[in-house]
Write a structure and sequence with these properties.
Length: about 475
């Protein structure tokens, strides 16, 4: 069994206490991970604060070059890191539509290089005989990153590369369910960066709470549940930390009756079930016009019946649900849907044997007030709801406390775009869903959080504005 170490101030650090990391496909312990103490966190924050002046003063081009180097180094270790993802997260190496561990590694590398190429130029507001006024973007200091278990490495890169690129230093805490890939990546990253610039500590939610409350951390970036995001807001008030919160989503999609069902069904299936449905911006509520409802339900059920769920190190399309609490939630939501009279087209029951395996489940004729519709299931289960009037479908789609993403599917792009713009969400897609890229801002509204990631808008979130006014008269 492997044992892993944290990295503080460029040095590997062990602790007296450890916690087990399980393979969700076998429920067996695969590693022991160090449990950070408050003193460990303090040391990590102190190291990041000590490294900040020199790192922020480095020429911009040098920081960009180092972020590019991180992307290249992670790519060189892609096979090793993808194997770790399969073992601790459960996702297949290739997976359905090629959206497994190798896909996560490809995205990780691409985001590093795209972020390295971002710039925040000085903006000149005025330059005349009276004065020159410039707007500068200044790094904040120490950025604390708290990452989830669904995309352990990719989201770590989303959080930390913009922080580094803009001149901040980092303390990151990965999910206690999936710390191993991030720990190994941190080791690779520390071979490139000066000591103290990138620190990693591991532990459970109490460690995340301590980061949120820590007076030495200037910003928290968090991806996870809405209840935890609210607690982070409370904890961050102590020193008025900056926050970027990407919280829960329960994304709705509206399918208009003019679509080619055979053409859109595979795409809808892939965007709903990406990462076994364990994706914040996955399609999670599907509203379909009555004229094509039965046809689309059957098409989705046919695809679901053709895929294979099993251990990620085998030839499968989908792996297990990542952890026992989430697995239990998916099982309970499915059972409640069945008990309420919904029609289970495929799946609906956990698979026998060890591991947290739940097959892809398509649910039709479901009441709007069931948990499966009202709550984010975050698993391989999709409710399909019928509508007659598109205005009613829009009202139902927007009737949610969440607002991360949404989509409209139609052969009429202008009509679809007009309808999509009325969805109450941070990103609206037409004839697609859950597709993000490193140069387009992504974030939520309502209880799906605030702040954005990616591109210039995301990079600005890691800075404060300093207005420099030079009087000439």
């Amino acid at each position: 069994m492997s044992e892993y170490q944290m990295i503080i101030d460029g040095q590997k650090v062990d602790t007296d206490a450890h916690f087990p990391v399980l393979n969700p496909a076998t429920e067996e312990v695969i590693a022991q991970c160090p449990r950070a103490t408050e003193q460990d966190l303090n040391r990590a924050v102190d190291a990041a604060r000590a490294a900040f002046p020199a790192w922020s003063a480095r020429p911009d081009a040098e920081r960009a070059e180092m972020v590019h180097a991180i992307g290249a180094a992670l790519e060189a270790h892609a096979g090793e890191l993808a194997g770790l993802l399969v073992r601790e997260q459960g996702k297949p190496l290739g997976g359905f539509a090629g959206l497994g561990a190798q896909f996560e590694l490809g995205g990780t590398v691409a985001w590093c290089h795209a972020t390295a190429d971002l710039e925040l130029p000085v903006e000149v507001i005025q330059d005349n005989d009276e004065a020159r006024i410039e707007v500068h973007r200044k790094p904040l200091g120490v950025v604390g990153s708290i990452t989830p278990w669904n995309y352990p490495l990719l989201i770590a890169i989303w959080h930390t590369m913009p922080a580094l690129r803009s001149g901040n230093t980092v303390v990151i805490k990965p999910s206690e369910f999936t710390p191993l890939t991030t720990l190994r990546a941190a080791e690779i990253i520390n071979d490139i960066l000066p000591p103290g610039v990138f620190n990693i500590v591991t532990g459970d939610g109490s460690l995340g709470a301590a980061m949120t409350n820590h007076p030495g951390i200037n910003k928290i970036v968090f991806t996870g549940s809405t209840p935890t995001g609210k607690k982070i807001m409370q904890g961050a008030s102590g020193n008025l930390k900056r926050l970027t919160l990407e919280l829960g989503g329960n994304d709705a999609a509206i399918v208009l009756p003019d679509v080619d069902v055979a053409a859109v069904a595979p795409k809808i299936f892939a965007t709903a079930l990406i990462n076994n449905g364990q994706t914040c911006a996955a399609l999670k509520r599907l509203y379909v016009h009555e004229d094509i409802y039965d046809e689309l339900c059957q098409a989705l059920a046919d695809i679901a019946g053709s895929v294979k769920t099993g251990p990620g190190d085998g030839e499968v399309d989908f792996g297990p649900v990542q952890n026992k609490p989430q697995f239990d939630k998916v099982c309970a939501i499915a059972e409640e849907a069945r008990a309420s009279g919904a029609r289970i087209l495929t799946g609906g029951q956990p698979l026998p044997g060890p591991g947290y395996f739940f097959p892809v489940t398509i649910v039709a004729d479901i009441d709007e007030n069931t948990r499966l519709v009202r709550e984010e299931p975050f698993g391989p289960i999709l409710p399909v709801l019928k509508y007659t009037d598109v205005e009613d479908a829009l009202r139902r789609a927007n009737d949610s406390p969440n607002g991360l993403g949404g989509s409209v599917w139609s052969g009429d792009l202008d009509r679809a775009a007009a309808l999509a713009s009325r969805l109450e969400c941070g990103t609206a897609w037409v004839n697609n869903h859950a597709m993000i890229q490193p140069d387009a801002p992504f974030g939520g509204v309502k209880e799906s959080g605030f702040g954005v990631e990616f591109g210039r808008y995301g990079l600005e979130e890691y800075t404060s504005i300093q207005t420099l006014q030079i009087s000439k008269a």
